[in-house]
Amino acid sequence: RVNLLRHHGVKPILVFDGGFLPMKSEQEIKRARSRKENLERAREHEAAGNSRAAFDCYQKAVDITPKIALELIQVLKQEKVDYIVAPYEADAQMTFLSVNKLVDAVITEDSDLIPFGCSRIIFKMDKFGQGVEFQITRLEQNRELDLNGFTKQMLLEMCILSGCDYLPSLPGMGVKRAHALIQKLKSHEKVIKHLRYSAVSVPPQYEENFKKAIWAFQFQRVYDPATEDIVHLSGIPHDLSEDDFLGPWLPQAVVKGIALGEIDPLTKEPFEVPAFLPVHLLLIKVIRSRSLLFLQMERRG
User: Fold this and answer.
1) Is the pLDDT score of 163 beyond 50?
2) Are residues 150 and 248 in the same domain?
3) Could you tell me the CATH number of the domain that includes residue 164?
4) Cβ neighbourhood burial of 201 (10 Å; 0-12, 13-18, 19+)
5) Are residues 232 and 186 in the same domain?
6) Tens digits of per-residue pLDDT, 85-109?
7) Which domain holds residue 299?
8) Is 109 found in the same domain as 4?
9) What sign has the CA pseudo-torsion 236, 241, 242, 244?
10) Treating both helix axes as pointing N-terminal to C-terminal, what angle do 152-161 and 188-197 enclose, rounded to 10 degrees?
């Protein structure tokens, strides 16, 4: 797909996940458990002679570590393809590039780019370059849910209410119910108050965690290519004194080294790059399917 984009005059920028975000510690534990379970299933399928099912489970069991991503980065350097390793989440990094008009669109399979406020997203792009386009300025034209009158804030709160990586949904709360509640009551504070009066079991810390989820979508720390430094996704409120949950601050030299693929985003130590890095095609295929692309359109001629 990178070659397809370049052939049509599109400049791709691959964006990789970096270090772990404190807000997602529980989610990371669940994913690690899922990888372990898939590895066990893969071995069972392999022992039973079901190679296709084993292959599918092995793929789901792969943990894309920074060292594996480094192999792809070496190939990207050779092919002169741009890339950025985010200090924390690729989703936030891509949104920063999008809202600051450093790219024209984002290609991804991750719907979290919508609550992040990404301007233009292309989902499900196939090998022919066809996909589904989302533009945040055209919310009111959505056919599945009536989003007339929805602000960006209401859309964000609806997505969090229905469940996200930063906060699991309440029992029985799906997208349609979350949409109906936000459409009627306009804000998460009123929705939570309504749910408590309706005898819905709302955990004591839910409202506080909801606010933290909002801040994670709005103010997470990212890398600014212009200043080559770590910044917040948008201007942070003055009353937010403790912000490590948005991704701890990093020295400029470290965050730049991470962005360039020279420093491990987990250990914060420089990579030891051998003279020759073997490229494992299977792993590269898996990485490409999970990596996130930014596009900057370039006209030819």
Assistant:
1) yes
2) no
3) 1.10.150.20
4) exposed
5) no
6) 999 999 999 999 999 999 999 999 8
7) 1-17+66-138+206-301
8) yes
9) positive
10) 40
What's the burial of 68, exposed, middle or buried (CB within 10 Å: 0-12/13-18/19+)?
middle
| Number of domains comprising the chain | 3
45: pLDDT strictly greater than 50: yes
Q: Which residue has the tokens 């979290």?
A: 112
- Listed in sequence order, the DSSP H helices in the chain are 2-7, 25-47, 51-61, 66-78, 90-99, 113-116, 152-161, 175-185, 188-197, 206-219, 252-259, 281-290
Identify the burial level of 278 via C-beta atoms within 10 angstroms of its C-beta, where 0-12 means exposed, 13-18 middle and 19 or more buried: exposed
Position 277 pLDDT exceeds 70: no
Tell me how far the alpha carbon of residue 199 is from its chain's centroid: 34
Task: Please give the model's pTM, rounded to 2 decimal places.
Answer: 0.84
Contact (Cβ atoms closer than 8 angstroms) between residue 244 and residue 230? no
Q: Are residues 196 and 104 in the same domain?
A: no
Instruction: Tell whether 72 and 213 lie within a shared domain.
Output: yes
Distance between CA 184 and CA 192 in Å, rounded?
13
CATH number at residue 93: 3.40.50
Q: Region 248-277: what's the mean pLDDT?
A: 88
